[in-house]
Amino acid sequence: MVAKRIVAVSTDPDTQRCIGRACNELLVADDLSEGLDIIGTACPDLVVLGGKHTPTDVRALVEGIAQRGLNIPVAVAHHENPNAASDTYIAAGAWNCLPGAVLAEYLQSARKDPPAPMLSQPILDGISPHIHDSDKQYYVDACAAVVNMVGVSESMIDTVRLITLVAESRCDPILIVGETGTGKELAARAVHHLRHPAAPFVAINCAALTASLLESELFGHVKGSFTGADRDKTGLLELAGDGSVFLDEISEMPLDLQAKLLRVLQERVFRKVGGVEGIACRATIMASSNRNLLQESLENRFRRDLYYRLSVCPITMPSLSDPTRRRDIGLLAEYFLRTSTIHPGKSSRIKCLTRLAVEALERHSWPGNVRELRNVIERAILHETTDKIGLSSIEGHLAEYAALSADGPGLPIRDFSLAKAERELIGRALQQTEGQKSRAAALLGISRATLYDKLRLYGLGQYKGGGPAGQSNADPLDAAERIGASA
Ligand SMILES: Nc1ncnc2c1ncn2[C@@H]1O[C@H](COP(=O)(O)OP(=O)(O)OP(=O)(O)O)[C@@H](O)[C@H]1O
Ligand SMILES: [Mg+2]
Questions:
Q1: Closest ligand to 316 CA?
Q2: Which residue in 453, 456, 428, 458 sits closest to 443, CA to CA?
Q3: How far apart are CA 457 and CA 381, in angstroms?
Q4: Residue of the nearest CA to atom 15 in ligand 1?
Q5: Distance between Cα 398 and ligand 1 center (Å)
């Protein structure tokens, strides 16, 4: 059943919160009579009765709904496993009787896929029932599973716990920090999923746009406010509605725009570029950075006041090189092998990794973190000729990275053209930063604008990270120019 609008007859905030995540619109009633009033006017798709109610209440509600000429199912959301009691509720006319969290998960999965028959079963090991049993080993909990955040090490358990805590708090804005490729965007999606999954999640990469474009993407603009503004544009802050805006690489946001963002965070109102009308910002603002923002602010590249505003309860994503994440490496490798679509024929023939290969992965320092590990596994799938990924399929890549990070002499110079050397160096910087242009510019000691000019000059504009010859194997989600918007 796809329930867009739900009336919850419950005073329990936990029930309200978890049912609210499973629908577009939640209307809450304190008691049965208020519930019937709201049902009569709002015509919801489903009514959820909190667990304190008795089967007699269910019967009264079902009759009240029928008297109003409506046919709306009533579910009972229990706190605990209601197996013992569910029959009596169902006999009284309830459509089903489940723990609130299971009911919410079920409703959410029904929004994506045709629903499986609904069973009165408790949550298994805290993981949602629509995650296949064999996949549960990869995740700390149901939320991590929903966003595919693999890892069960101590530090992942702590991280997922913090994500949950922050998501359930009123913390806003939320800062997510960590090295490149550690899953900051996944963490943002996890917070979003826990807070308001049915609302839009919009992401923007602050490093990918010029200052003026970034401003009008964020705030929108009114027609005629600048040359080329031939119609009104709605900004992401408005598009996100009650959902989330994810500001990726916030350290790259120009200082004057940082001041405007700070004002939005304080006043919760913004104006379109060239506009006069104040627009309310209801979205949760999340920002990520792989730079040390405190350091950036000490060096006057980031506003100190914005840093303090953002860093109330930062979520730090653990690096893959962190010794406490060692056990995640083999797990992630196996997960990427199972889920890779790079060559379906080959990956279905390859069953696992050899022990030596896993040990070699565990010894590697992973400067590009999980993203790099996924790239290694995808390349290995292409190279492997047997049914197990062995050392020989991964060694090449690991050695290549080691050489790059050791500042080795690089390839022998056969051609002394400065332009070629510059092109090569830019390519290497992009490779090392997995296609992140702001970081590549920093490595090269040039401004982002200069880097963009040179990318155009050398025809590297489409570079998205990856192998040394510029072959692109970056995550489509990671494209530097991405401005994603999804519900
Ligand atoms: N724990 C994880 N489980 C599965 N995949 C992961 C995990 N962490 C990261 N990834 C994958 O690695 C890639 C990079 O993740 P993500 O974009 O969230 O990292 P990031 O920290 O935002 O990186 P950057 O700083 O470079 O923007 C994505 O493809 C993501 O799905
Ligand atoms: Mg990112």
A1: 1
A2: 428
A3: 34
A4: 183
A5: 19
Ligand nearest to the CA of 160: 1
Ligand nearest, relative to CA of residue 163:
1
Rounded to whole angstroms, how far apart are CA atoms 401 and 103? Answer: 47
CA dihedral of residues 131, 137, 138, 142 (deg, nearest 10)? 40
* Domain formed by 338-405, architecture: Orthogonal Bundle (1.10)
Domain ranges in the chain are: 5-128, 142-316, 338-405, 418-481
Measure the CA–CA gap between 107 and 278, rounded to whole angstroms.
36
Per CATH, 142-316 and 338-405 having the same topology is answered no
Q: Mean pLDDT score of the chain, rounded to an integer?
A: 83
Residue 325: both structure tokens together: 């994440």
Query: pLDDT digit string (tens) for 55-100?
Result: 899 999 999 898 888 888 899 887 665 555 677 887 788 888 888 8
Question: In the numeric block, which tokens belong to residue 30?
Answer: 């304190």
Give the pLDDT score at 347: 82
In CATH terms, the fold of domain 5-128 is Rossmann fold (3.40.50)
Summarised one tens digit per residue, pLDDT across range 356-371 is: 999 999 999 999 999 9
138, 160, 186: residue to mutate for ligand 1 pocket, most atoms within 8 A of CB: 186
Residues with CB under 5 A from ligand 2 (ion): 185, 248
Rounded Cα distance between 421 and 424, Å, is: 5
Alpha-carbon distance of 305 to 85, in angstroms, equals 54
Interatomic CA distance for residues 393 and 286, integer angstroms: 38
Minimal-distance CA residue to ligand 1 atom 18: 183
Q: Bigger pLDDT: 200 or 119? A: 200
Work out the percent of the chain whose per-residue pLDDT is above 70.
84
- Structure token pair of residue 341: 């679509």
**Helices 32-42, 55-67: crossing angle, 10 deg rounding:** 30
Please determine, for residue 202, whether its predicted confidence score (pLDDT) is greater than 70: yes
Residue in 288, 478, 482 to alter for ligand 1 test, most ligand atoms within 8 A of Cβ: 478
For the beta carbon of residue 98, count every other beta carbon within 10 angstroms.
Answer: 30
Ligand 1 atom nearest to 187, measured from its CA: 18
Ligand 1 lining (C-beta closer than 6 Å): 148-151, 178, 180-186, 248, 288, 290, 317, 332, 370-371, 374, 436, 475, 477-478
Strands 46-50, 269-270: pairing is unpaired
Q: Which of 176, 179, 252, 370 to mutate to test the pocket of ligand 1 (most atoms within 8 A of CB)?
A: 370
Instruction: Give me the CATH code for the 418-481 domain, please.
Output: 1.10.10
